[in-house]
Every structure is written in C-alpha cells, then in structure tokens.
Amino acid sequence: MKNLITTTWLGEMKFESTNPSGHNLFIDAGEENGGKGEGYRPKALMLSGLAGCSGLDVASLIKKMKLEVDTFKIEIEANLTEEHPKYYDKVTMQFHFYGSDLNEKKLQKTVDLSIEKYCGVMEMFRQFAEMKVETLFHKK
C-alpha cells in the first residue's frame, strides 16, 4: 500500500503538507532558525506520529477488551544527538492511565501488544533509537 504526501513551500521556512486522510498540517521552523513557529517541527512530528500510532492501538484494544479507563495520555521524551544529521538516539515513552477501576494487567497487555506487535511506527523507531517504554497507573 502506497501513501502519497505532498509538501508545498509557502515561503520563508513554512510548508503545508497533505495527508491521505484529507487533513493538512503546517511545518515551520522556530524563530531561532528563521521561521515563525507557525507549524510543527519535523522531528517532533515524528514523536507525535509514534504516540498517535501506539495510542490508536491502545484505544482500540481498550474498547475491544471493554476496559474501564477515564483517560490516558502518552508522554515521550527523546534525546537528540549533537552531531549532524541530528536524530533521536534514545526515546522514552510513558503511558499514563487514569481511572478508579483500572485493570492494570489487561492495560499493560494493550501497551505490550501495541509496542511489540501492531505499531509500525514503533518498529521504525527501533531501527535508529534505543526505546524504553513505561506504563503508569493513576487511580482516582
């Protein structure tokens, strides 16, 4: 299956990028790099893609397993190398689950299935970064 993305320069350091979903997004450099900060930074967008990919897996599995979760969020901290080309060499991904009746064992299974089996973006990241995944439960 092929995806086509078209990214068009809008002047200065700003671009608009199409997406197969029909939703477009803007990419821009920060002011320190000649942009105006009016869009996503490309490397940070990769981290959002990782969180989104795994998040969709987990949300689907929560529904399928009929688990009680008020909400969950994914926080990612990534270390960028200092030499060019700069890339993420270490990435820590934290899944935070919130609720009063959390089934920790089954929720951990949703995370494990995502990161070990379903999330293709995770597999891509494994090619260039040391990955660490943590699951935290916050009971109300």
TrEMBL record:
InterPro entries: KH_dom-like_a/b, OsmC/Ohr_fam, OsmC/Ohrsf. Keywords: Oxidoreductase, Peroxidase. One of its GO terms (molecular function) is peroxidase activity. Its EC number is 1.11.1.-. Pfam families: OsmC. Gene3D superfamilies: 3.30.300.20. The keyword Flavoprotein does not apply. The keyword Oxidoreductase applies. This is OsmC family protein. It comes from Algibacter miyuki. The lineage of its organism: Bacteria, Pseudomonadati, Bacteroidota, Flavobacteriia, Flavobacteriales.
